[in-house]
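Lab notebook, entry 467. We have the chain sequence and a SMILES string for zinc ion, and the next step in the workflow is to get a structural model of the bound complex before anyone spends time on docking refinements. Request logged below.

Task: model protein plus zinc ion, output structure tokens.
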Amino acid sequence: MYNKSIIILADGTRADIFDELVAKGDLPNISKYLIEPGSKLPAVTTFPSTTGPAHLPFLTGCFPGTCNVPGIRWMDKAKYDAGAFFNSYRSYVGFESFCMASDMWPHIKTAFELIPNSYSIFNSIARGAKGRRNFTKISRIWYWYYGHLTDRWGFVDDMALKKLLQVLERDPAFVFTVFPATDVYAHLSYPHHERVIEQYRRMDGYVGKLVDTLVARGEMDTTAIFLVSDHGLSKTDKHFCVNTFLEDHDLPPFFYPLIFKKKGKLSANMVSGNAMTHLYFRNKDGWSRRTTVDELKSISPNIIDDLLEEAAVDIVSVRNGEGGADVYSRRGHARVRLDGSTLHYEVKGSDPFGYKKLQSDLSPELSLNKTWETEYPDAPFQIAHLLTSPRAGDLIISATPGFDLRVKYEHPEHFASHGSLHTSHMRVPIVSNVKFEERPVRTVDVFPTVLKLLGHDIPGHIDGEPL
Ligand SMILES: [Zn+2]
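Result returned:
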């Protein structure tokens, strides 16, 4: 029935703002052509809720941990220990963004490898998109640089639409297009700023033009359109310097951009989206092993308590010796661990997320349904999945809304942030002209849905389930 699918990634679109605008009738094209005949599903993105890693679910059906791309920045402790120059740490901010596709585990396949005649627009994770199928391979950098210098990100979104309409003339089976403006405008101001809201309305205009084009080509009834987002954002006016914290604990940190200073470092700090960070520690015998919670306590006995003294720090997850994590907050302490797809959740005293009592064994579906309407939707499941990546931190911080975890070397200053486990970052809209059962879903579920609608097999390693 469908022979074409288009994913529009409206980067940084927050579910509650989107819902309010729909309710007010401010997004008439999205309502008329997508929601009314199709679906608007309540959804969560993935942890870390950041541009880049949170795009992976739409392109692979897998969580960032499953892909082994656990953040915007990460360290590979074993490679770092061996003194490797290449691939021992990474920041996808800037030119290394090209590395994300090759950093993924080789067995993970992208949409461009699985779907013939698939196209990538303004997206850096284009493994398998050969030649012109990576439609903006070179120009993406030019447009990003232009946007950065001029703040005219609305123009970059206009170009994303223009390129999407150009690609339609090539009769593609699948197109993934990133529209960056909402995210960037929110970072430069705050999520409810009029310029940001205006960009939601412009997105509605883009959907109108896309639908007009598909109707004119006689393709509207055979095209499955998805309008999605990779994360929300929250207003940020306080910055907490994790590097200073580590120095004060006699754990001099290795961090971006000062990656040529390696001497005497005892920790590493790899921030993502600015509201989460991966911390890595040097063990007494070197960097190569992961540092578990017991070993961390011998390296720096009070570090977890001291982190929780900081208002900026909301949730601290530390690897433990059982292959999972100990999760701490000012509310309580729990243990999480994955066994196949089942999540084991064990509260020690009181619950760190403030959940009402959960079962100790949870299926993926139950994990989401039971935590859906809380401040931390899907959090234990997401933490457990992230830690399956060998590159994930020994300790992961999720920031308190209102704070981020980076002070120095961030230009221009960020006034909004994302990346954390909080609902304001995790909840996103998923809208489609295809009708689906209305229930809470994850962004990893979109990709297997696209494969199914287009008649492709769904690879067994995928985390998502078709809608
Ligand atoms: Zn984003």
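Notes for the group: The CA atoms of residues 160 and 179 lie 6 Å apart. Worth checking against the assay data. The chain has two domains: 4-69+104-233+421-453, 238-417.
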